[in-house]
């Protein structure tokens, strides 16, 4: 048996729905784990990505921290995959893209009654939001995309097994979905 | 409330509109001409008038908005009492147009593309205005101003501030020189008006067609279709009416020869159209004049009137019963695409200038779906000369497949920009020598959609065998950055795409973004490969020539001047099109933060 | 004997006046298309139906069928172009499928599936296109418009109302409605209009009927568009003016 492929996963501006879908491959996780091992991932609690064969990134890029994490993945992963609608086209978070960020922050923290007592949070611990939400491929080079909101477990399974087998992944009718 | 609701539309306004619509016989096909006159009268097309006009012409108001919004010189919202548009061809830029526009904006306290708060003035850019030999140029309320410099801009600012009516501005501002540097059989022609027509009438219509065919004359608009074959096909096509259309929508950046022909040889143009009418059996002709040449309208109308008085137009021309023909001038309103013949016909019909699906072609289904012969200004002139000289003598000029002479519009880095007439077959090098060009890096032949010729190819010859051209000849010396030339052309195509088909509408915009990305220093090799992919899509799937050639400037300059792209690239495989740290600026401003975590590096 | 041409090696008979796509669909051969609708005169704007004829690329919906033509359609070179065109349309508008009532019944989406388009690829333009919810029964979501003009044509040619038109030029081109206020509520559109039925994407929607079919049972959940377009060809309206092939029939 050859060396296991090392896989890292993360969620940026996403809802972890794609990660739930990864878990939904259920008992097939066992044969999968014969072929791969996880590096940085919510499943392992490893905080930083080391050299990997495959990186799976869920969610778009909406703040400075997302950029740092994405850069870390691009630097360490031979193959970087955008998984899910948000990673591919910004998805729900990108629905703010036609609005001015300043007006959004004003509306949420200053105009509307809320928790911050008329103050936009400025703690250096918090990542600053970008003026627009970007799909991953607008920030770094992305090698593959698995569409869906979320992609089904079957789609993820098919895609990963194709990839691991060295085949150009194809989803085909029923597995390729944008919703 | 829209500010234009304040436009007083009282009884006299109502009467003015009634009269305007009546003058155009309440025909919806005159819509563009009506809108142009409304624009001239009010400075924009008021909301209220759109509603009134829709009723008077019995068309939906959405159609009026649809047409008006297609043409860049028509405005559905107030756009300033003085509307300044700087010509944005690369040759204007090379002559310093951008700093001059900046100066004017500064002095009038406004940003490009915006209307000043008091509604006095707006400043923007427009595609080439055809004054490349005497730029930088601008249009003010549709009138061309040439030879801009620091002082002239200051004077214009004063005139605008003082609200001086355009009629009282110094005439010198509006002077357009012909700049004829080399003339030949066309520019030297001294045929008396009607002379050729008289001869043609005696020999007969069929003979006209045969002689033009025998002369080998090909269209001078660039595509080079055989004029005689076109006239013959139009003549043989079944129809209720036949039409003759002269394409004077000279929009290809860097071309200005039709401007000079319409100034110096209008009789040849109209004589050629009348000959064509005789040949194809047309009673009605149109000259479609680009909006930028608005100043030529009155002089041309005077020529038409003189020809009517001389029985060279109207009923029973030269006393020949049944030979009735007259010419109407239609003005364009800022849409390069209308130079494409089927888009031009749509525009003549008062519609958006969207190229039609072909087949059928205009010779069988043209204006109002009737057989129509559409030819370039220069082609009509050449037809007269070919008939006058006889096929054999005409064929002796030029080359085997490109007979006769050609007007070349020379601009850019040379001592003597202007109009040069040569027999076809002249080499690029000969023209460069004649116009006093030194240290030439490249020549853009036939405009942005044409070919970028580098020094190694200067022995190539103009003609349909080698370098077909509508006449533009823009010269760039070794101080120029050919990447910036290509970027200017790419912006032009994106601005002028009609938006009908997916590849051109979206592709030209993406191409523009990519060129801007490279210019901003964010480009990578990945972007160059994306340009090549875009080119494949645009070239193979676009609806018309605009989309099919929109990548040419990039491909040609990439071929000859690849380092001018590469020296702007980052040595990265990929980089975002935007500034990562800059995209946190708004959040920094809103939170008052400036700590290390409030900044982003491009790559870690 | 009918005249014929060759499509990917198959013999396709045609009637005089038919275009290449019309003859192909009638003969049971699918060519991808988006702005073409069998009840309307071919338009030729989306360019999805681009084929290669004697080495030249042309839109098959507007290309008149001629005897002896050699047409290529199902080749990777053309499908690659079609993929780019679909990607361009996704990049141009704001297509957020998970929130769209038309998802599962959308032609653009179904074409993306069939052509195995995994991502937009290009940089998104994210245009600002406010909705028009002024009408009590009908919603217009311009974010999804692909400018195919089917509603413009249907409203003008079938409904005789001219409710829709296109405004602007180039990348700023957009759909407008025929009202001084610019609002749909001030037009004479009605739910039974043909214009309500022809939108291939999710721009023109009847209110209060969204998401009525569960995921898994929607039109293109079942079979790919390449199979279904053939079922419909040549698509005809029934006596009631309803088009079996059109989505969103109230």
TrEMBL record, chain A:
<dbReference type="GO" id="GO:0051536">
    <property type="term" value="F:iron-sulfur cluster binding"/>
</dbReference>
<dbReference type="Pfam" id="PF01058">
    <property type="entry name" value="Oxidored_q6"/>
</dbReference>
<feature type="domain" description="NADH:ubiquinone oxidoreductase-like 20kDa subunit">
    <location>
        <begin position="15"/>
        <end position="162"/>
    </location>
</feature>
<keyword id="KW-0371">Homeobox</keyword>
<dbReference type="InterPro" id="IPR006137">
    <property type="entry name" value="NADH_UbQ_OxRdtase-like_20kDa"/>
</dbReference>
<protein>
    <submittedName>
        <fullName>NAD-reducing hydrogenase HoxS subunit delta</fullName>
        <ecNumber>1.12.1.2</ecNumber>
    </submittedName>
</protein>
<dbReference type="GO" id="GO:0047985">
    <property type="term" value="F:hydrogen dehydrogenase activity"/>
</dbReference>
<dbReference type="InterPro" id="IPR051349">
    <property type="entry name" value="Hydrogenase_assoc-protein"/>
</dbReference>
<keyword id="KW-0560">Oxidoreductase</keyword>
<dbReference type="InterPro" id="IPR037024">
    <property type="entry name" value="NiFe_Hase_small_N_sf"/>
</dbReference>
<dbReference type="GO" id="GO:0003677">
    <property type="term" value="F:DNA binding"/>
</dbReference>
Automatic annotation (TrEMBL), chain B:
<dbReference type="InterPro" id="IPR036249">
    <property type="entry name" value="Thioredoxin-like_sf"/>
</dbReference>
<protein>
    <submittedName>
        <fullName>NAD-reducing hydrogenase HoxS subunit alpha</fullName>
        <ecNumber>1.12.1.2</ecNumber>
    </submittedName>
</protein>
<dbReference type="Pfam" id="PF10589">
    <property type="entry name" value="NADH_4Fe-4S"/>
</dbReference>
<dbReference type="GO" id="GO:0046872">
    <property type="term" value="F:metal ion binding"/>
</dbReference>
<keyword id="KW-0479">Metal-binding</keyword>
<keyword id="KW-0411">Iron-sulfur</keyword>
<comment type="similarity">
    <text>Belongs to the complex I 51 kDa subunit family.</text>
</comment>
<dbReference type="InterPro" id="IPR037207">
    <property type="entry name" value="Nuop51_4Fe4S-bd_sf"/>
</dbReference>
<dbReference type="GO" id="GO:0047985">
    <property type="term" value="F:hydrogen dehydrogenase activity"/>
</dbReference>
<feature type="domain" description="NADH-ubiquinone oxidoreductase 51kDa subunit iron-sulphur binding">
    <location>
        <begin position="483"/>
        <end position="528"/>
    </location>
</feature>
<keyword id="KW-0004">4Fe-4S</keyword>
<dbReference type="GO" id="GO:0008137">
    <property type="term" value="F:NADH dehydrogenase (ubiquinone) activity"/>
</dbReference>
<dbReference type="InterPro" id="IPR001949">
    <property type="entry name" value="NADH-UbQ_OxRdtase_51kDa_CS"/>
</dbReference>
<dbReference type="GO" id="GO:0003677">
    <property type="term" value="F:DNA binding"/>
</dbReference>
<dbReference type="Pfam" id="PF01257">
    <property type="entry name" value="2Fe-2S_thioredx"/>
</dbReference>
From TrEMBL, chain C:
<keyword id="KW-0371">Homeobox</keyword>
<feature type="domain" description="4Fe-4S His(Cys)3-ligated-type">
    <location>
        <begin position="77"/>
        <end position="116"/>
    </location>
</feature>
<dbReference type="InterPro" id="IPR036010">
    <property type="entry name" value="2Fe-2S_ferredoxin-like_sf"/>
</dbReference>
<keyword id="KW-0560">Oxidoreductase</keyword>
<dbReference type="Pfam" id="PF13510">
    <property type="entry name" value="Fer2_4"/>
</dbReference>
<keyword id="KW-0479">Metal-binding</keyword>
<dbReference type="InterPro" id="IPR019574">
    <property type="entry name" value="NADH_UbQ_OxRdtase_Gsu_4Fe4S-bd"/>
</dbReference>
<feature type="region of interest" description="Disordered">
    <location>
        <begin position="230"/>
        <end position="250"/>
    </location>
</feature>
<keyword id="KW-0004">4Fe-4S</keyword>
<keyword id="KW-0408">Iron</keyword>
<dbReference type="GO" id="GO:0047985">
    <property type="term" value="F:hydrogen dehydrogenase activity"/>
</dbReference>
<dbReference type="GO" id="GO:0003677">
    <property type="term" value="F:DNA binding"/>
</dbReference>
<dbReference type="Pfam" id="PF10588">
    <property type="entry name" value="NADH-G_4Fe-4S_3"/>
</dbReference>
<dbReference type="InterPro" id="IPR000283">
    <property type="entry name" value="NADH_UbQ_OxRdtase_75kDa_su_CS"/>
</dbReference>
<dbReference type="GO" id="GO:0042773">
    <property type="term" value="P:ATP synthesis coupled electron transport"/>
</dbReference>
């Amino acid at each position: 048996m050859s060396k296991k492929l090392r896989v890292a996963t993360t969620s940026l501006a996403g809802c972890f729905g794609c990660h739930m879908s990864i878990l939904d491959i259920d008992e097939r996780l066992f044969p999968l784990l014969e072929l791969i091992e996880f590096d940085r991932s919510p499943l392992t609690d490893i905080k930083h990505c080391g050299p990997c064969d495959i990186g799976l990134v869920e969610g778009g890029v909406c703040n400075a921290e997302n950029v740092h994490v994405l850069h870390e993945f691009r630097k360490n992963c031979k193959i970087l995959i955008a998984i899910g609608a948000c990673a591919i086209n910004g998805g729900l978070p990108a629905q703010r893209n036609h609005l001015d960020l300043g007006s959004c922050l004003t509306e949420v923290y200053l105009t509307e009654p809320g928790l911050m007592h008329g103050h936009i949070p400025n703690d250096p611990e918090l990542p600053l939001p970008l003026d627009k939400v970007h799909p991953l491929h607008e920030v770094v080079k992305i090698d593959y995309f698995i569409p869906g909101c979320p992609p089904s477990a079957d789609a993820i399974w098919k895609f990963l097994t194709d990839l691991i087998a060295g085949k150009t992944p194809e989803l085909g009718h029923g597995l390729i979905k944008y919703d | 409330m829209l500010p234009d609701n304040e436009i007083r539309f009282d009884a006299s306004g109502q009467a003015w509109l009634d009269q305007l619509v009546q003058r155009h016989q309440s025909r919806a096909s005159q819509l563009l001409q009506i809108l142009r006159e409304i624009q001239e009268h009010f400075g924009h097309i008021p909301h209220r008038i759109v509603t009134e006009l829709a009723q008077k012409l019995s068309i939906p108001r959405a159609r009026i908005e649809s047409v008006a919004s297609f043409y860049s010189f028509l405005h559905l919202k107030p756009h300033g009492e003085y509307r300044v548009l700087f010509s944005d061809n690369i040759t204007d830029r090379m002559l310093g147009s951008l700093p001059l526009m900046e100066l004017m904006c500064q002095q009038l306290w406004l940003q490009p593309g915006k209307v000043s708060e008091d509604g006095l003035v707006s400043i923007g850019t427009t595609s080439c205005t055809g004054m490349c030999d005497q730029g930088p140029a601008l249009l003010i309320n549709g009138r061309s101003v040439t030879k801009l410099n620091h002082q002239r801009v200051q004077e214009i600012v004063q005139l605008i501030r003082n609200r001086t009516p355009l009629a009282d501005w110094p005439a010198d501002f509006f002077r357009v020189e012909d700049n004829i540097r080399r003339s030949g059989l066309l520019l030297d022609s001294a045929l008396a008006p009607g002379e050729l027509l008289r001869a043609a009438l005696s020999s007969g219509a069929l003979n006209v067609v045969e002689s033009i065919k025998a002369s080998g004359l090909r269209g001078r608009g660039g595509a080079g279709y055989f004029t005689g074959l076109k006239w013959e096909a139009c003549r043989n096509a079944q129809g209720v009416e036949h039409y003759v259309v002269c394409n004077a929508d000279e929009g290809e950046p860097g071309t200005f020869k039709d401007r000079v022909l319409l100034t110096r040889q209008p009789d040849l143009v109209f004589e050629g159209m009348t000959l064509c009418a005789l040949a194809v059996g047309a009673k009605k002709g149109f000259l479609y004049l680009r909006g930028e040449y608005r100043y030529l309208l009155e002089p041309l109308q005077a020529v038409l009137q003189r020809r009517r008085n001389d029985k060279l137009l109207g009923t029973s021309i030269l006393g020949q019963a049944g030979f009735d023909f007259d010419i109407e001038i239609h003005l364009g309103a800022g849409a390069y695409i209308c130079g494409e013949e089927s888009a031009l016909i749509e525009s003549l019909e008062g519609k958006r200038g969207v190229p039609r699906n072909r087949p059928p072609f205009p010779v069988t289904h043209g204006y109002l779906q009737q057989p129509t012969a559409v030819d370039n200004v220069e082609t009509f002139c050449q037809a007269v000369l070919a008939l006058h000289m006889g096929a054999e003598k005409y064929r002796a000029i030029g080359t085997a497949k490109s007979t006769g002479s050609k007007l070349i519009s020379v601009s850019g880095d040379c001592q003597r920009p202007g109009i040069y007439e040569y027999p076809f077959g002249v080499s690029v090098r000969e023209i460069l020598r004649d116009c006093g060009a030194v240290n030439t890096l490249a020549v853009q032949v036939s405009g942005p959609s044409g070919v970028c010729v580098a020094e190694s190819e200067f022995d190539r010859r103009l003609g349909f065998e080698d370098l077909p051209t509508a006449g533009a000849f823009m010269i760039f010396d070794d101080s120029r950055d050919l990447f910036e030339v290509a970027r200017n052309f790419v912006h032009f195509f994106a601005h002028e795409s009609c938006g009908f088909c997916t590849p051109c509408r979206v592709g030209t915009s993406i191409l523009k973004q990519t060129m801007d990305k490279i210019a901003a220093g964010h480009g990578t090799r990945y972007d160059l490969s994306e340009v090549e992919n875009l080119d494949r899509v645009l070239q193979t799937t676009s609806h018309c020539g605009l989309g099919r050639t929109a990548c040419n400037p990039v491909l040609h300059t990439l071929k000859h001047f690849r380092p001018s792209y590469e020296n702007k690239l980052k040595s990265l495989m990929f980089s975002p099109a935007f500034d990562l740290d800059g995209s946190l600026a708004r959040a920094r401003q809103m939170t008052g933060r400036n700590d290390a975590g409030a900044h982003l590096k491009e790559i870690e | 004997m009918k005249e014929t041409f060759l499509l990917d090696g198959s013999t396709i008979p045609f009637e005089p006046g038919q275009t290449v796509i019309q003859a192909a669909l009638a003969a049971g051969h699918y060519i991808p298309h988006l702005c073409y609708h069998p009840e309307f005169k071919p338009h030729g704007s989306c360019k999805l139906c681009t084929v290669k004829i004697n080495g030249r690329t042309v839109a098959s919906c507007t290309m008149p069928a001629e005897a002896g033509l050699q047409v290529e359609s199902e080749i990777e070179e053309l499908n690659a172009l079609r993929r780019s065109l679909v990607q361009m349309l996704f990049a141009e508008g704001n297509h957020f499928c998970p929130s769209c009532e038309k998802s599962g019944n959308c032609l653009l989406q179904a074409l993306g599936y069939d052509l195995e388009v995994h991502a937009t690829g290009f940089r998104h333009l994210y245009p600002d296109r406010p909705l028009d919810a002024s009408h009590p029964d009908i919603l217009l979501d311009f974010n999804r418009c692909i400018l195919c003009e089917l509603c413009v044509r249907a409203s003008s040619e079938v409904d005789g109302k001219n409710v829709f038109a296109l405004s602007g030029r180039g990348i700023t081109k957009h759909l407008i409605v025929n009202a001084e206020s610019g609002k749909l509520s001030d037009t004479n559109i009605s739910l039974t209009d043909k214009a309500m039925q022809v939108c291939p994407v999710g721009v023109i929607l009847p209110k209060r009927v969204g998401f009525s079919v569960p995921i898994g049972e929607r039109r293109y959940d079942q079979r790919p568009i390449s199979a279904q377009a053939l079922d419909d060809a040549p698509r005809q309206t029934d006596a009631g003016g309803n088009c079996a092939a059109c989505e969103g029939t109230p």
